[in-house]
């Protein structure tokens, strides 16, 4: 939906719950970086842009009204009552003139904004984002399986249509081919997908994991997606990738074999993995030490004669997948905490330099807006020396890596928590 939608959602997240007039006021002030517009039409244009973006977000149900306060006559204690279906996404009118006047006054604060929508608070509609993130995970995984963007587009349409009623359903509702084609037409770049629609659908239906299944011949065929099984496979793949990253490809092969066969002895495992006993044993016990694989001791008794019994101890390897996921969950939480602490320390250490850069950027923005000459701009840029710029580049790189690490850990947490929700439902 563009940069404007990202800015609107970011401001809404920082404020938690806020009415639309105050939100538009904050967005407009942020747009002008604390320097009010010279004329009202300039402010009107920015306000209209953000209002249109917010209306589109509400239309797609990314934002929702907070529960409204109702005072009952029988009791003095007010109650919070949710809006009925559909009412929570109706965008109220705002007074553009009032907001623009407040923006043009430099001493105006957000609490000074008063309008008819004061009692209508808005917030992020998290369940919708969760649903879309779950679907994106599956769509991305399917793309890596079939390596075909058109087939992936059909898979995405199947998920969107089939999970409207219940986003945590184990299987989607059956979708007919006519319904599927109508949904795909609404997507961008759907021309080539519709030209060879049947071929792409066959690619999905014949995929080895069998996640897309044809259940009936009515209306040319009804298709479902096994959502729970898809998340199981994505979670297994994530853990296997983690093993490969930490211990190498041979370790991933051993892990895959143990998971496939359930309980397996070491000699048989080395034979199936086609690796030497020495190398395989070393990798296997590294996985055991890291708790990716569990070693279990089994005692067997063999009766040789009526008076002699021979006892043999054998060892088998298996995977307790739930316990393993909980361990990865704890590691991911710890990784996020460590990344945030490191990020905070980096910003604190170089805070003066970061503040200096921010001030210079604001000065350059205002000078560019005032159409200053390039020589004047170079004078301001020279306020940051070459060593300072080198340090800032290192700081930005460090911040970027730490932020990416947090996002990766968040994605892992989201996937594992979703797996547990499907297992418990």
Task: Show the helix and strand layout.
Layout: H1 3-15, E1 18-19, H2 20-31, H3 40-59, E2 63-65, E3 68-70, E4 79-81, H4 96-104, E5 121-124, H5 126-146, H6 149-162, E6 175-176, H7 177-185, H8 191-195, H9 197-205, E7 212-216, E8 222-225, H10 227-247, H11 249-261, E9 264-265, H12 266-273, H13 277-289, E10 294-303, E11 309-318, H14 321-349, H15 351-369, H16 374-381, H17 386-424
Antiparallel strand pairs: 1-5, 2-5, 3-4, 6-8, 7-8, 9-11, 10-11
Helix pairs in contact: 2-3, 2-4, 3-4, 5-6, 6-9, 10-11, 10-17, 11-12, 11-13, 14-17, 15-16
How would you describe what is shown here?
This protein is mainly alpha-helical and 425 residues long. The protein is 62% helix and 11% strand. The chain contains 17 helices and eleven strands. It has helices at residues 3-15, 20-31, 40-59, 96-104, 126-146, 149-162, 177-185, 191-195, 197-205, 227-247, 249-261, 266-273, 277-289, 321-349, 351-369, 374-381, 386-424; strands spanning 18-19, 63-65, 68-70, 79-81, 121-124, 175-176, 212-216, 222-225, 264-265, 294-303, 309-318. The strands form four sheets. It has a three-stranded antiparallel β-sheet with strand order 1-5-2. Strands 6-8-7 form a three-stranded antiparallel β-sheet. A hairpin with a 5-residue loop joins strand 10 and strand 11. Helix 2 (20-31) packs across helix 4 (96-104), helix 10 (227-247) packs across helix 17 (386-424) and helix 14 runs antiparallel to helix 17 (386-424).
């Amino acid at each position: 939906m563009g940069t404007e939608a990202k800015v609107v959602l970011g401001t809404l997240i920082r404020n938690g719950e806020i009415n639309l007039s105050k939100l538009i006021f904050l967005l407009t002030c942020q747009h002008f970086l604390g320097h009010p517009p010279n004329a009202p039409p300039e402010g009107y244009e920015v306000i209209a842009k953000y209002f249109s973006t917010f209306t589109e977000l509400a239309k797609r149900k990314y934002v929702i009204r907070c529960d409204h306060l109702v005072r009952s006559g029988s009791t003095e204690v007010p109650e919070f009552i949710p809006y009925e279906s559909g009412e929570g996404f109706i965008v109220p009118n705002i007074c553009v003139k009032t907001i623009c006047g407040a923006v043009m006054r430099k001493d105006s604060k957000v609490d000074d904004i008063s309008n008819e929508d004061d009692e209508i608070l808005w917030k992020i509609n998290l369940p919708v984002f969760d649903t879309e993130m779950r679907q994106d995970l599956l769509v991305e995984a399917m793309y890596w399986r079939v390596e075909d963007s058109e087939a992936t587009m059909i898979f995405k349409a199947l998920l969107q249509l089939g999970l409207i009623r219940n986003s945590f359903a184990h299987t989607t509702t059956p979708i007919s081919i006519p319904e599927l084609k109508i949904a795909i037409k609404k997507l961008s770049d759907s021309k080539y997908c519709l030209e060879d629609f049947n071929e792409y659908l066959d690619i999905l239906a014949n995929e080895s994991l069998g996640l897309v299944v044809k259940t009936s011949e009515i209306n040319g065929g009804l298709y479902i997606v096994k959502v729970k099984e898809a998340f199981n496979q994505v979670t297994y793949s994530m853990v296997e990738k983690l093993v490969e990253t930490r211990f190498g490809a041979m370790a991933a092969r051993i892990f895959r074999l143990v998971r496939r066969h359930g309980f397996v002895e070491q000699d048989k495992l080395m034979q199936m993995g086609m690796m030497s006993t020495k190398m395989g044993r070393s990798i296997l016990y590294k996985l055991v030490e890291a708790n990716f694989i569990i070693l279990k001791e089994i005692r067997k008794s063999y009766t040789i004669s009526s008076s002699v019994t021979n006892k043999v101890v054998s060892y088998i390897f298996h995977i307790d997948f739930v316990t393993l996921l909980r361990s990865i969950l704890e590691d991911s939480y710890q990784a996020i905490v460590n990344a945030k602490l490191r990020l905070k320390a980096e910003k604190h250490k170089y805070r003066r330099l970061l503040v200096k850069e921010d001030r210079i950027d604001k000065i350059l923005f205002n000078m560019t807006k005032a159409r200053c000459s390039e020589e004047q701009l170079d004078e301001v840029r020279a306020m940051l020396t070459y060593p300072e710029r080198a340090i800032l580049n290192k700081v930005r790189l460090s911040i970027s890596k730490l932020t990416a690490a947090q996002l990766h850990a968040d994605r892992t947490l989201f996937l594992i928590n979703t797996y547990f929700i499907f297992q418990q439902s």
